[in-house]
Design goal:
The structure is a homodimer. Helices cover 37% and strands 15% of the residues of chain A. The first copy, chain A, is built from eleven helices and eight strands.
Chain lengths: 293, 293
């Protein structure tokens, strides 16, 4: 793992790209013959929130590209209040990089942006991994006011990453231990850190979730228009974006495999990083037009 | 694949074992250091209904054991009208073989029997694979009267395996083509065939489904008592035992990974046999106490 540690998200320098709309902060590392993997981040997350135990193994065989959307981290501009606005920035960024095709890992909010991008520019993604996310018209998306989440978000004894451990992981000792290990991996990066998100970022992204919950036309019908082989992943006890949303994705996307993990919440990919990266790598390695891998 | 063809379900001789209760027909083939894999069959299925494209690759590295429960195929006795009765026969059979531990692949009806066995004899199974099945208290289990199934079952132009192709596979050209290939593999076995199930077998097994649909106590609570690492698999468009039953299994079993396949029905394991056997082999190869593989 020495190569991954040297060339992964713990030490990779943050770079900046001037797009048509904004200047975007990003990191890229890894190499190989496979298509690059664009990683789209969760609610309020920055480049520093990507677990190296997930990003670095995936950078073996391909470039991994982490990206701050407009107004997040050290990217310029304002956070859009719609998923479509965020998708527009991500496409602007990829155009700036000169990339006309890649794979995508969209986590939570990032998974919604990935779906929108797939509709706006069907040629961009070859294969998609959607983790802990929801289709347009999904249910109970990021309802931070519900007691299971609010009790942690309003707990004055929990600061910074300690909140993430509570709300991204299930309330079992095994899942909480995995959460502690996850936090331990994030804090290994100590230099060239991103700017943490404040209330303005959270408010704009929350507005985008509310807009995304509104179905347009027949519920989930637009998913039929995303033919890409897709791997849908969720923790079975996700309180932030319930697993029922992954069920609806898998039932309505024409070409999606569903993988759900036990004893885990929103951060299932971090909790089961060895399994997740093994599945993700096998899925991405397939050249089949069909999703099963 | 020459070894698998020579030593798989197309040519393996049927054997008979005198248990305490009945004489059971079975086949066993393959070898290796891993625990044997007991395969428990679907509604009206016999030894001849096991797809060699599923059983034979799994027999690389372990013994695969196919089994006719009482009153099915050439096993003696009457078909029990409860899942518990069927579980009792399967345990009788394993006792007769002198096996005190194995893994299990339970498909459809067989997945219910496997769950019951895990409760009745917790030490028997190390790892479980439950495909296209339902927990006790599950919903819409084998409702053959519903139009999507009845139209095929009552179609006089469909005979024998042609019905299976319709009801085990989704109504897309890709899934139906997979169904045709599946039937083609089944009919490769031409000698030492099992006795096909008649109406008495179907009626008793249907009674067992209706009994299994009745929850006892708090719905799904008994699943907490099945701690074995479990892989739950389903086709996303299963009309015979809807995928919602696999959702409930995964949500309530404490240690289960869910894998759902697109564009497929009840026979997803046969449609995606290459993917399924790859996942099943990786899952069975794990010695972790945790299900993710």
């Amino acid at each position: 793992m020495s190569i991954a540690t040297k060339d992964g998200n713990t030490t990779a320098p943050t770079r900046f790209l001037r797009g048509r709309h904004e200047t975007y902060a990003y990191r890229r590392f890894g190499s190989g013959a496979a298509r690059p993997l664009l990683c789209l981040q969760h609610f309020t997350g920055t480049l520093d929130n990507w677990d190296p135990a997930v990003t670095d193994p995936l950078a073996s065989g391909r470039e991994v590209i982490l990206f701050d959307s407009a107004g997040v981290g050290r990217s310029s501009g304002k956070v859009p209040i719609t998923i479509a606005g965020m998708a527009s920035h991500a496409l602007d960024f990829l155009d700036g990089l000169g990339l006309d095709g890649c794979d995508v890992l969209g986590f939570s909010l990032g998974g919604m942006v990935a779906q929108q991008m797939a509709r706006d520019r069907p040629s961009m993604f070859r294969r998609m991994i959607l983790v802990g996310t929801a289709p347009r018209g999904g249910e109970e998306i990021m309802r931070l006011e519900k007691p299971s989440l609010a009790r942690h978000l309003s707990d004055p004894t929990l600061k910074g990453y300690a909140v993430l451990q509570k709300i991204f992981f299930a309330p079992t000792s095994s899942s909480q231990a995995a959460g502690e290990a996850f936090i331990g991996r994030l804090v290994q990066r100590t230099e060239d850190l991103d700017t943490a998100s404040g209330p303005a970022v959270a408010a704009a992204q929350m507005a985008a979730f509310r807009e995304w919950e509104q179905a347009t036309g027949i519920r989930f019908a637009e998913l039929k228009g995303i033919p890409q082989p897709t791997l849908v992943v969720n923790g079975i006890h996700d309180e932030m974006i319930p697993v029922s949303n992954s069920y609806r994705l898998s039932e309505n996307l024409p070409n999606a495999v569903l993988l759900a993990y036990p004893d885990s919440g929103h951060g299932s990919l971090f909790q089961f990083h060895e399994s997740f990266t093994r599945h993700a790598a096998a899925f991405l390695a397939s050249d089949s037009p069909s999703a099963p891998y």
